[in-house]
Design goal:
Blueprint: H1 6-41, H2 57-65, E1 69-79, H3 90-97, E2 107-118, E3 124-128, H4 129-132, E4 137-141, E5 147-156, E6 161-166, E7 180-181, E8 192-197, E9 205-216, E10 231-234, E11 246-248, E12 253-261, E13 269-273
Parallel strand pairs: 7-12
Antiparallel strand pairs: 1-2, 1-4, 2-3, 3-6, 4-5, 5-6, 8-9, 8-11, 9-10, 10-13, 11-12, 12-13
């Protein structure tokens, strides 16, 4: 048997080992560079621009509709009925004067509040009839905190709709404070619905939900309610003080007038279709 040259065999092994090491080094270097590139391309939280963060679509709706929504406050003086106060001096007056001094029934101030929205630059505002019914003083607070007296220029109890007008308005309101009216016939169950108003005096509160039902009628509304009922039902949160405020679509167009709630449940509100 012939034996090879030990020096040649050793050189061959060294050459193979060197070549293998070189290949492994190249692979490892490539992997490290690729990892480094990936890490370098991943943005840090500080590098993310606020402009690329998605914004809720309801922000634009609130900005568009909010300036048109007003706070309506009513105040009237009523005479307390059933007043029959007996004074301990009544017998004294009857014995000496033959009659008891006439006493007037006490009166008290009744205050209420609701919502409305501007529909014309001349200061015309749409609201519910039950918000302004009964006479008395009307005060309207605009989105810029200006306060005006107002008067009822038209009302229809059958539909529970009323129009009031600002008094002593020196100049026309800006177009940005006039609500855009939509088409309530185009809405579908499941569409977005956004309510804006003054629940419990919390001015221009925005709530959102969907159209839950169309054409709701036969509701036993306290006080008799409107004779004509064709309500839009929504789960957008509506509370006392929202009455007369707008229900709008995702484009910021008014599709209804918030009118009634079911006090025994949550997420059940009703609006008069704007059409």
């Amino acid at each position: 048997m012939r034996r090879g040259n030990p020096n040649q065999s050793l050189s061959w092994r060294l050459w193979v080992a060197g070549l293998g090491g070189l290949l492994i080094g190249i692979i490892l270097a490539s992997s490290l560079n690729w990892t480094a590139c990936v890490r370098a391309e991943k943005p840090t939280p500080e590098a993310v621009s606020p402009a690329v963060v998605p914004q809720s679509p309801f922000v634009a709706v609130a900005r568009k509709v909010g300036p048109s929504v007003v706070n309506i406050r009513t105040r009237k003086v009523v005479e307390m009925r059933g007043y029959d106060f007996q004074s301990p001096f009544d017998d004294f007056f009857r014995e000496f004067f033959g009659e008891v001094p006439k006493r007037e029934a006490p009166k008290r101030n009744i205050e209420g509040q609701g919502s409305g929205f501007i529909i014309d630059r001349k200061g015309y505002i749409l609201t519910n009839n039950h918000v302004v019914a009964g006479g008395g003083e009307l005060m309207v607070k605009l989105s810029d905190d200006r306060v005006f007296k107002a008067e009822v220029v038209g009302a229809d109890p059958r539909t529970d709709v009323a129009v009031i007008k600002l008094k002593d308005l020196k100049k026309d309101l800006p177009e940005s404070e006039v609500a855009e009216l939509g088409n309530s016939d185009d809405i579908e169950v499941g569409d977005y619905a956004i309510a804006i108003g003054n629940p419990f005096g919390l001015e221009r509160t925005v709530t959102q939900g969907i159209i839950s039902f169309k054409g709701r009628s036969g509701l036993p509304i306290a006080g008799g309610g409107p004779v004509y009922q064709d309500f839009i039902q929504t789960d957008a949160s509506i509370n006392y003080g929202n009455s007369g405020g707008p229900l709008v679509n995702i484009r910021g167009q008014v599709i209804g007038i918030n009118t009634a709630i079911n006090p025994a449940g949550q997420g059940i509100g009703f609006a008069i279709p704007i059409n």
